[in-house]
From TrEMBL:
The keyword Zinc does not apply. GO terms for molecular function: citrate synthase activity. This is Citrate synthase. Belongs to the citrate synthase family. It catalyses: oxaloacetate + acetyl-CoA + H2O = citrate + CoA + H(+). InterPro entries: Citrate_synth-like_lrg_a-sub, Citrate_synth-like_sm_a-sub, Citrate_synthase, Citrate_synthase_AS, Citrate_synthase_bac-typ, Citrate_synthase_sf, Citrate_synthase_typ-I. Gene3D superfamilies: 2.20.28.60, Citrate Synthase, domain 1, Cytochrome P450-Terp, domain 2. It comes from Pedobacter segetis.
Amino acid sequence: AIDIAKLRDQTGFVTLDSGFKNTGATKSAITFLDGEKGILKYRGYSIEQLAEKSTFLEVAYLLIYGNLPTQSQIDDFQHQISRHTLVHEDMKKFFDGFPSKSHPMGQLSSLICSLSSFYPECLDPHQTKEEFDLTIIKLLAKMATIVSWIYKKSLGHPVIYPKNKYDYVTNFLHMTFGQRTEDVEIDEVVVNAMNKLLILHADHEQNCSTSTVRIVGSSDCNLYASISAGISALWGPLHGGANQAVIEMLEKIKNDGGDVDKWVNKAKDKNDSFRLMGFGHRVYKNFDPRAKIIKKACDDILTKLGINDPVLGIAKKLEEVALSDPYFVDKKLYPNVDFYSGIIYRALGFPTEMFTVLFALGRLPGWIAQWKEMRENKEPIGRPRQIYVGENDRDIVPIEKR
Ligand code: ACO
């Protein structure tokens, strides 16, 4: 076997893999993904079983601590989270400072980073296990409150405080859709749909945002700032921001007369920068198993809620046309997790700009688990190399002679 470290030291040998298409950055025991077969498992459990039989909080526990919780473990986990759902009152001033139309992802990233100021004990890279567990609990608890308050602010409505009699997801829905004056009845269909969506987003091994969280944490930076960096990475339309971009695209196609073939042709045109949003994936060269579950859930939920959304018809037609087109077949471009998720979020009552924030809420346990694993494995600081292609040996010419 070649000793790469020795080779590097002796010769300056560097491997170049732009976009890290073939480079593994870590060994991980959290999520298994087979992109050729379309398989996804968290800690050995199939995503299909988890989406069907678990709650989001159970999956969060599984990802972070490695096993599904017992009844007393999940009760304790929920109880601890409930004790930390309030955010510091001073933090509300930050909400007031953002322009009312500012994008929720920019707000979320800043607010999560600011937790490191309110809870400075997180700055210690050598927290004990108990201290670190509390740092995690606070983050899980406050994230749901922060996300719902961002939504309330976008409406210009007063924020709703958490009610700790509710479970994690119900509490989130209460703070999001609730009123100050009365208890809004939270439909079981909505709670189940939300649990399912959050579970399906909870981890996805070394994607762009997760790699960001690990690499920021590798410098011994605190958990809250690392997650804030992950939120920024998720925001881009090539990653989590695609769920917003999909609905905007479907709306555009609808308003343009619904000619799906025209838009599929546009996506194939190499002189046009347009891509079919919600299509294609770096790792899946087959159906994204999450997209399959979400598509079915989408039909079920819209039927149960009695909603007839014309963009669902356009999405299905788009999928049909694209998947019978040699361009998409040859390049193995299938619908990804973001293709149908927005239609469900919309049916539940969320505005388009909130979609990526909901993705972040779901991805949070995965980011935490990956950060924790990176620390427990004592991984070295992340620091890729480069091949320098710039100028060499230039002498400075005085400014008046340049
Ligand atoms: N529409 C049209 N053509 C596409 C699409 C698409 N959605 N996706 C990829 N292609 C084409 C590319 O033009 C390229 O063609 P070429 O070989 O002729 O140059 C080929 O397929 C390979 O694409 P790459 O961009 O090289 O693949 P990469 O693995 O780097 O990118 C990505 C993956 C970013 C997801 C890409 O498929 C894309 O932009 N999809 C649309 C955005 C999207 O849905 N993102 C969400 C991904 S899931 C997630 O992050 C949660």
